[in-house]
Amino acid sequence: MKLWMKIFIGLFLGVIAGLVLQEKAVLLKPLGTLFINAIKMLIVPLIFSSLIVGMTSMKDSRQLGRIGVKTLVIYLCTTAVAVTIGIGVSRLIQPGAGMTIDANHVFAAKEAPSFIDTLVNIIPNNPIGALSSGHVLQIIVFAIFIGIAINITGQKAEPAKQFAEAVAEVMYTLTGLVMKAAPYGVFALMAYVVGQYGIQTLLPLAKVIAAVYIGAVIHVLLVYGGGVAIVGKLNPVRFFKGIADAQMVAFTTTSSSGTLPATIRCTQDNLGVSKGISSFVLPLGATINMDGTAIYQGVCAVFVAQACGVELTLANYITLILASTLASIGTAGVPGAGLIMLSVTLTSIGLPMEGIAIIAGIDRVLDMARTTVNVTGDAMTALLIAKSEGELDEAVYQSNRTDASALCEDAA
């Protein structure tokens, strides 16, 4: 049985277990926590080693700069489209109609760092501290510098390059082993979420949830599927089939960085993206690509405006699109980025912060959709860049091996 099917079965059984056990489903949470911790264990060494491998595999500085520009342009453009889709869907569904926000129920949102602060802090003053504390942006920058230095040093740095390649291969193998436990971790996570929130908690905000999920489906099918078909001139069905495992992990873990090991394996083994491209594009995307969060921003902003009886103008919508797009970089790597970004976008158009209190109650359910979108966007970007750079193995893409045994054979 294919891995994504096992994960889906685990998800389905987890929902049933959550409905049956209700509050007692919290007993299953430790199993899900173990799975998440196992994935988090992979993040720092995988990002660091894979980025170095990606950098050293592209000795041409012009190619490196070209790929970097392509990556940023795709991420920013798709983010702007995503928030526009979120606004459009919420305008049609009217999620805030008939609701009134309680001004006494205030959510104390964390302060989002400014864009300048983010730029200043991306260079670590203590690289070892950045690695130990898991500051992803700083780790990415440090790994890029190490990769550039290895390329400049040349033959004398060959042992360092081989060491990074060996570490990356070991991490890929470990990823394959951890992914074999995914169905069980997903079962426990879903049982806990359903048992904690319950159907009665989700019904009052069903329109908000529906708007975010509809926007996510539209964005994934039209923007990503269309990008693969029109820009990449590839079969989008094979693309979605190839990243199904990563999507399932993203949906349940709600962490783009946590899903990164699965995303890297799917793009390389199932889509045929070269290690150089995937090792550079995907860690960067896991940090700054927030298309799913942008959809969430658009839906939630319109919801708060409607619940407050505020009629947004065209200028408000333009400001919302710009703020959400720029905030996707400004809040990169910050825990709870979705709610932090929402506080930024609400403030940018003068809406009350009280609306976040309501959204916070269903944030986990919404986070499942937005993380899945983010990961799918990362994979599409890596695929398109690999195709444009002539680093896509189309024979692998057409064969599309997606079963767990193939992953384990490759890892071995």
Give the topology string: H per helix, E per strand. Answer: HHHHHHHHHHHHHHHHHHHH
Give the overall pLDDT as a whole number: 78
Estimated structural class:
mainly alpha
Give the overall form: globular
First-last Cα distance: 19 Å
> How many strand units?
0
The largest sheet, given as strand count, sense and whether it forms a barrel, is: none
Our count of helices gives 20
Radius of gyration: 21 Å
Which blocks of ≥5 consecutive residues have pLDDT under 50? 103-112, 330-336, 402-412
Fraction of residues in β-strands: under 5%
DSSP helix fraction: over 70%
Describe this entry's structure for a reader.
With 412 residues, the protein is mainly α. The chain is built from 20 helices and no strands. Helix 11 runs antiparallel to helix 12 (256-270). The longest helix has 33 residues, at 61-93. The two termini are 19 Å apart.
Question: What are its keywords?
Answer:
disordered C terminus; 77% helix; globular; single chain; 412 residues; mainly alpha
Write the topology of this structure:
Elements: H1 3-21, H2 29-56, H3 61-93, H4 115-121, H5 127-133, H6 136-153, H7 158-179, H8 182-202, H9 206-231, H10 236-242, H11 244-253, H12 256-270, H13 275-288, H14 291-307, H15 314-330, H16 337-348, H17 355-360, H18 363-388, H19 394-399, H20 404-411
Helix pairs in contact: 1-8, 1-11, 2-6, 2-7, 2-8, 2-12, 2-13, 3-9, 3-13, 3-14, 3-15, 3-18, 4-15, 7-20, 9-10, 9-14, 9-18, 11-12, 11-18, 12-13, 12-18, 13-18, 14-15, 14-16, 14-18, 15-16
